[in-house]
Amino acid sequence: MTSTSPAPAPLATVTDTGPDTVSDTDSAAAPGGRRRHAVVGAGHRSQMYIDAIVGEHAEVAELVAWCEPNPARAAYYDAHVGAQLPRYQPDALEQMIAEQQVERVVVATPDHTHADVVSRALDAGADVVLEKPLTIDAAGCRRISDAVARTGRDVVMTFNYRYSPRNSALREVIATGVIGDVTSVHFEWALDTVHGADYFRRWHRDKSKSGGLLVHKSSHHFDLVNWWLDDVPTRVFASGGLRFYGDENARARSLGPRPTRGTGAVGDPFALDLRADSRLAALYLDAEEHDGYLRDQDVFGPGITIEDNMSVLVDYQRGATLTYSLNAHSPWEGYRVTVNGTAGRAELEVVERGAVQPDADGNAVLDPSATPDRVDEGPRPHGERLLVQRHWAQAYEHPIPRGRGSHGGGDAILLADVFRGAQDDPLGRAAGYLDGVRAAAVGIAGNQSMASGLPVLLADLDLGVDLGGA
Ligand SMILES: NC(=O)c1ccc[n+]([C@@H]2O[C@H](COP(=O)([O-])OP(=O)(O)OC[C@H]3O[C@@H](n4cnc5c(N)ncnc54)[C@H](O)[C@@H]3O)[C@@H](O)[C@H]2O)c1
To answer: Staple 364 to which of 77, 93, 218, 358, CB 3.0 to 4.6 Å?
Structure first.
């Protein structure tokens, strides 16, 4: 083993491209011509898939219809792709699949609808590309598992975080065995007061729609740990609460009268003014009249039923333990992962936004991980570092390839896998519905544990599928 850096190096600044640039077009074209795709849920997240289908992957994929209840959002994407595609309401999903000969649907609807949309699409004869989380509860897992078993159809889970070069690098380090067998993982994720706050403005704030952040957000993180360790979670204990956002906390901290929504509120760093972003205005403000969906509710308003501080303990089948925490009101955004093994330890540190500094109008980029062009910010610069240290040896820095575009270049590689088919990937990044169940199950069990105060065995959740061995 080489030791390239006896002293821990500072976090490397992430640049757009670099000498170790990850190729995002390595995959070969899928055989069989262009597959007919429809988008179900034409909101914010769908654009990544829409752009991929009509752009980079147009030779293998075709966009043929929308299933979207809001006409303003469907019209927005018609204009975006420069064509008027047939539109269908949610209850006409099966009709759309039949009439438009849809071979595959891309599902980017709110989390609580996933189980219904996915199982119906499979039954109607389409394969599915599904945004995380798989679903929000055990009944949803059962419904999707049953539909997969019944139809034999394919569900691709788009766990894009796996594809971030830094997360792939940690998987590589663990898989080489350089730190031995993993005994425990410590994983802290901090969401800042802009990005973290955003989960408290719309449907995510309602646990019956998102499953709370332990399902909605942490399913990314639990999937990473499952995949890093190539292991299966077995038991979960969780504790947490709503301690910062929400009307009761605002009252307790004497925050005074609050606006009901961000649009029009002046000089409030917690307010999201939809008019400041033409895309947000078109997708949500201009679409409100059709469904009353408010994208910019006050994060200190009533009706929030999700937690903003969560701590979780997870046991794994082969004996490792995960200690995990998620905070949604941090002054900086990023994460730290420590993996202890029988031969040493690996430590991944990532700063996605070192400090939140809104512009003169009080606005800041909502999701710092989705914006590759970052600047250094004071003593906590945007950057990433993966240190590996074996027992009795100096630490060294494991190189992280630089990717182009959002999520550290991960999204581009993911899309190539989704639309052209995963090639022989030694990292095994492509994910299916069982990976989705394994990730969502940790959050679902965590929610149950938070409610009961007791640990929960995943085998007792009745997920409709055996989580399997590693
Ligand atoms: N992987 C990631 O990094 C990432 C990032 C953002 C969102 N997401 C996921 O993408 C999904 C969508 O999130 P979003 O931010 O785009 O939400 P959104 O609210 O902006 O969009 C959802 C769209 O679905 C439509 N819709 C609601 N119910 C429907 C139904 N039954 N059938 C068809 N359409 C329906 C809504 O009208 C809306 O246009 C969520 O599951 C979320 O977890 C993933």
So the answer is: 358
